[in-house]
Amino acid sequence: MMWLEWTLGIMLMLFSFYIMCIFMVCSITLQKGRTVLGIVGIFAPWLIGAFLPAKKRSRYERAQESAYQNQVAQDAE
Prior knowledge:
- This protein is 79% helix and 0% strand.
- The chain is built from four helices and no strands.
- The longest helix is centred in the first third of the chain and has 30 residues, at 2-31.
């Protein structure tokens, strides 16, 4: 019975990691302004939305612009 417990424990751990990855990719997709792909990605995990460019003025794009401006300001000093 010990091998069955180990197998089920490892499968549960891998399944938990898989679910965590799905929600992380969906949150990135939602931040990029792809709402429909983000919601659908929870149920049918597609990585398309995470690799598409961000929409104009989405939260993700504003954060990238802010980080770039901070880096340029630090390099100018």
